[in-house]
Each structure stands twice: as C-alpha cells, then as structure tokens.
Amino acid sequence: MLTPRRLQHLLALVNHAHFGRAAHALNISQPALSKSIQALEAEVGVTLLERKHGEVIPTLFGQLVLRHSQAALSAEADLRREIDMLTGLETGSLKVALGPYPSILSGFASAARLHAKHPDLDLSVHVASWREVAEHVLLRKVDLGIADITTIRSDEQFITEALDQNSGYFFCRPEHPILGNARISLKELVQYPWVATRFPPHVAANLPPEHSAAGSIDPLTGDFIPAIELNVPMQLGEFLKDSNALVMAPLKVMEQALREGRAHRLIISNFKLRVGYGFIYLRDRSLSPASLAYMQEVRAMEAEIFAKDTVLNAELFNT
Fold first, then answer.
1. DSSP string, 5-67
2. 216 and 281 together in one domain
3. Measured between alpha carbons, how far is 166 from 170 in angstroms, rounded to an integer?
4. Most-buried pick from 23, 45, 249, 313 (CB within 10 A)?
C-alpha cells in the first residue's frame, strides 16, 4: 500500500543518497528502511532506486513517484495542520524559521514566552539565512518565517509584515585607529573587516567601489558577504579584542560590552543601517492559532526592545 510513511522513507533516502544516513535521519534501523522501500517497489511494480558510484539515486520511475509523493505529503501535512487549527493552542504544533538577527532579538525569547503559556504546544524553531527562511516558507517546511523582507515584498506568493524598529550600528574596540578621524564616513568604514551576517543586495548597492577589506559581493546573488561572516551573531564583543574588525549589530546585542567599556559605538556620517526584517508567510495558507499567538508575542517583544533601546541611547549616548 502506498502509505505516507513509505513515501517519506523514499524522499529521505533520495535526499540523503545513502541508506545509513537516511535511516539515522528517520530514526529507524537500516533494515527497516530497506524493508519499507522493498515493499513500496513491490506495490508499484517497478524499481525506484539504484546504486551508482556508492550513492543511492532514483530511477526514472523513482523520480515520477517522488514528484507525485511530494504533493501528497504536502496535502497530508496541510490536512494535519488544519486539524491542529481547529483544536486551538492546547494541542498542535508550530514550526518557525528565523533569520540571524531576529533569532537573538525576539525570535527565541518569544517562543519561550509562548511555550510558558501553552506547554502542550509542539514548537520547532531554527535559524537560517534570510534567503533560506523565505525558501522554507515557500516549500511549506515551516508555518512562519521572520527574516529580511526587502527582497520579497513584491512577491505575490508571500504576505509580509515589517517588524524591525531597531537600527543597526557599527562598533569597534575603544583603541581602534578609526576613532582618530574627526568624522567617520562609509569610505573609512570599509577599510576595515566587518563582522556580521551577510547583507541583502540593497546594502551592497550603497557601498563604495573599494570595499575589499570589509567583505565581498556574491556574484550570483548580489549579497554582501562580510570579511567575517557569522550564521548567528553571538559573542560579537569577542571579535573586537586586539582586532581592527568592526562589528555590525543592534544596540541590545552589544549592551554589555558597551557598559563594560569593551566596545565603542561609531557615528557614521550620512549613513544609517536598518535591518528590514518581518514576518513571512504564504498568501494561500491560513495562519494557525499558534502562529497568530506567536506573532503577538514577537510584536510585544519588539516593542519592548525598541523602548529599551530608546532608554539605552539616552543613558549611554545622550541621544
């Protein structure tokens, strides 16, 4: 019988191209996986997989079954999700993909608040690049994404809601040579290595032609890749020790380093950096009660962060 479980096994095997790795990912034994695939092949009456150069690859029949099975599995997932929606927040699940900066600002903390209020809700929250977040939403791997939305606002497949009210700043160590300049311009800024996650193309478009010390532009995507690229912007203050690197981060992330005198915030002439992140979800997919509740937690936390940043600016910089 063409059961969803057997189709999932086939999909995992093709994705991992190896029985051992696929079995590990599925949390079943390798013999059990082999038996499942054999039963599936017996059911359809054709060979779905073959071994080539040490890897398992789909035959033409396997590719055909995969195309149809992905649609079937997606339909089953949507059905289960609709059932969860009817049961409300006391049961069900929520899958969220977060961009790097939203994850450390409001994403994970809001998930913790939601869990505290609804402990029986199954939560899955992971971090990915802003491009991957949109892709995961599109492929229905997650219910909701929070990441940079500047490049997908015009995409009719998505609905986006801007969140970020927080500015990004550049920081350096207190003895950094750039502080010898009376006025710091973007031209001076790009003479030093940047520490950050990768930036969308609209940021790269505003950089001076000579910026190789700060990072490089990806020729395929137009993204700006910092000289020191981080998947998750944590422990940023450590990069300032005995280094001329410049860290880009929201104020909240660098608060402790600023208070301890380990970091200095730079004021850049005619340049202000904002990370335009927000909610991302599919236009043709209803939001579950869990998604709506999580979004409310995120909005509340973002408002708290903005208020705290206002206080910090006044306290630390008299602005």
1. HHHHHHHHHHHHTSHHHHHHHHTS-HHHHHHHHHHHHHHHTS--EEEETTEEEE-HHHHHHHH
2. no
3. 13
4. 249
Task: Tell me the helix, strand and coil percentages in the chain, rounded to 5.
Answer: 45, 20, 35
Same domain, 52 and 76: yes
Residues with Cβ < 8 Å from 74, sequence gap 6 or more? 140
For 94-146, give the secondary structure using H, E and C.
EEEEECHHHHHHHHHHHHHHHHHHCCCCEEEEEECCHHHHHHHHHCCCCCEEE
pTM of the model: 0.70
Q: What is the CATH number of the domain that holds 66?
A: 1.10.10.10
Amino acid at 170: F
CA angle (221 as vertex; 215, 226 as ends), nearest 5 = 15
At 237 the three-state DSSP class reads helix
Using DSSP bridges, classify how beta strands 144-148 and 277-282 pair: parallel, antiparallel or unpaired.
antiparallel
Nearest to 151 by CA among 130, 127, 126, 137: 130
Q: How many residues does the chain have?
A: 319
What tens digit of pLDDT does each residue of 188-201 get?
A: 999 999 999 888 88
Domain count, the chain: 3
Domain carrying residue 184 = 167-274
**Residue 112 belongs to a domain with what CATH number?**
3.40.190.10
Residue 251 and residue 300 in one domain: no
**Of 52-56, 57-61, 170-174, where does the model show the most confidence?**
170-174
Q: What are the tens digits of pLDDT across the range 147-177? A: 999 888 889 999 999 986 667 889 999 999 9
CA 291 to chain centre: 16
